[in-house]
Amino acid sequence: MSFTFQEKLSLTEFLNSVVSNLSLSIADVPSPPVIDNKETESLTCDINVIWSPPADHGCPLTMYSIYHQQIQSPEMGWNQINVTNVMATNFTVTLACGRQHTIEMSAWNELGESARSRTWIIKTMSGTFTNISYQLGMATEG
Q1: Do the beta carbons of residue 31 and residue 50 sit within 8 Å?
Q2: 138: Cβ–Cβ under 8 A, 6 or more apart, which residues?
Q3: Cα 61 to the chain's mean position, in Å?
Q4: Phi-psi region of 38 (alpha: psi -120 to 50; beta: other; left: phi over 0)
Q5: Is the pLDDT of residue 74 over 50?
Q6: What φ, ψ does residue 17 adopt, rounded to 5°?
Q7: Strand 46-52 relative to strand 34-35: parallel, antiparallel, unpaired?
Q8: b/e burial code for range 82-118 (CB count within 10 A of at least 16 → b)
Q9: What residues have CB less than 8 Å from 77, skipping those under 6 apart?
Q10: What pLDDT was estimated at residue 102?
Q11: What mean pLDDT, rounded, does the chain reach?
Q12: What distance lies between CA 19 and its chain's CA centroid?
């Protein structure tokens, strides 16, 4: 970069001139991840949270945080799970069965934590469902 001066500039004017001629990129905390899940009910209590990675804003991601709480018991507060594999785009969370839950996410880099994602609400069904087979008695005429 070269500068030519035809008049004397103050230090402030000179620095403003340099800054306006540079394309500066300022690193920042990441954007929040986007939770891609759409379902509102699950037959199991193990929920696979799926997300799209956020923009890192010039500073590589260091981890994700998944927050969850029971809607019926907000006094219990938020639970936080940290996912340190920044290449991951899903993680299975075990939730209390037969409850409705709020799930949110954030992303981290060296500059700090993003805002939280939009809320995903999921209801887990009561108990565990397994293969159920019914035996039907066949009446035979004789």
Answers
A1: no
A2: none
A3: 12
A4: alpha
A5: yes
A6: -65, -45
A7: antiparallel
A8: ebeebeeeebebebeeebebebbbbbbbeeeebeebe
A9: 69
A10: 97
A11: 84
A12: 35
What does the pLDDT look like over 6-57, one tens digit per residue? 566 677 777 666 666 665 557 899 999 999 999 999 999 999 999 999 999 8
Q: Which of 23-27, 59-63, 66-70 has the lowest mean pLDDT?
A: 23-27
Q: What Å distances lie between residue 109 and 29, 58, 96, 106, 112, CA to CA?
A: 6, 10, 30, 10, 5
Give the residue carrying structure tokens 């799930």.
Answer: 103
* Strands annotated E in the chain: 34-35, 41-42, 46-52, 61-70, 79-83, 90-94, 100-109, 112-113, 120-124
Q: Look at residue 11 in the predicted model and tell me its pLDDT.
A: 75
Is pLDDT above 90 for 129?
no
- Strand 120-124 with 41-42, pairing: parallel
Q: Rounded to whole angstroms, how far apart are CA atoms 33 and 115?
A: 9
Question: Quick count: other Cβ atoms within 10 Å of Cβ 32?
Answer: 19
